[in-house]
Each structure stands twice: as structure tokens, then as C-alpha cells.
Amino acid sequence: MQTLTNRSKAVDRHPMTVWEKMYLPAIAKGMSITLSHFFKKKPTINYPEETRPFSPVFRGLHILNRDEEGRERCTACGLCAVACPAEAITMEAAERKEGEEQLYREEKYAAKYEINMLRCIFCGLCEEACPKDAIYLSETFAPSNYKREGFIYGKNDLLIPDPKTEPELYRKAVGERSRKS
To answer: CA triplet 178, 180, 181: central angle to 5 degrees?
Structure first.
């Protein structure tokens, strides 16, 4: 038999024995493999009732952090967007108005902050690049959706609750963050 590489493959054709012609050894071997699978532990997990343990370095949904006073930590420096290899993060910076400067530490803020989860590769480089610890990857899965627009998360979707207006939700979000650290 000739191939494109001009190498020939030797085919060993020996006559079948009587046992091989009856196929009984092959059937017995196949049945023994099938029966051995009956007594193995099932790999299936019944998801809502049981959960699979995650790796300690699991990276899930992005979260924008607030400080203890409820102010956004993001100063729109853009380092997370620059560090993202998939270019999944887009942001637009804006300057605070004259009356707002006393309420907030920084004079710049992210007027628009979006993450396209279809592009995100969950590498965690945005979390490492942020000097203000404003973004981190939680232990939560990104929910499924049927439309592409549902995978683009805006600033309101990513920001954790305000500790002044929603203290219970804030404590829950901060508790998740402390378990990850």
C-alpha cells in the first residue's frame, strides 16, 4: 500500500482461528468491560442539589468594588482596559462637577464601564492591574443568556450594593470577597 510519503505499510494478514471466527472471546471481553462499569462510581452530579468543588484559583464574574463609605473605587485610570488581552473592557472617563468633588476622593470617574463577557477569557489581569482594588473576579458564574446584548455588563450590573442604602447586600458581597482572599 503506497501513501503520499512513499512509505509502505506492512499489513499482517494471518488466517483467523476457530475461536476468532465465532467471535465469542470478543463478545465476552466486551461484556466484561460493560459489567465493570456497573460497579464504578457515577461521575454525574445532580447540579442544583450537589455542587462540584471549585479550584481555589477559580475566577468568575467581575465585580466593581466600593469603599466603606459607599464611594466607587474606580478612578477611570484605564489600566484594566489596557491590561485585558481580549480587549473585553471599554470605559469612558469623566470629570466630576464642582459640587461633587467634596463628596468623592478622586476628581475622575468612569462614566461608562462595560465588560463584554463573550470576549473575556477570565485571566484576572484586570484585577492585577487595578491600583485601587476597584475590580475583582468573584466566585460567581456569569449567568447564561439568549442574546448577545445580555453578555455585555455595564457599570450598574457590576457595581456592588451601596453600604448605606443596602447594608445587607453589601455585607454579603464583602463576605464573598473576604472568603476568596
So the answer is: 65
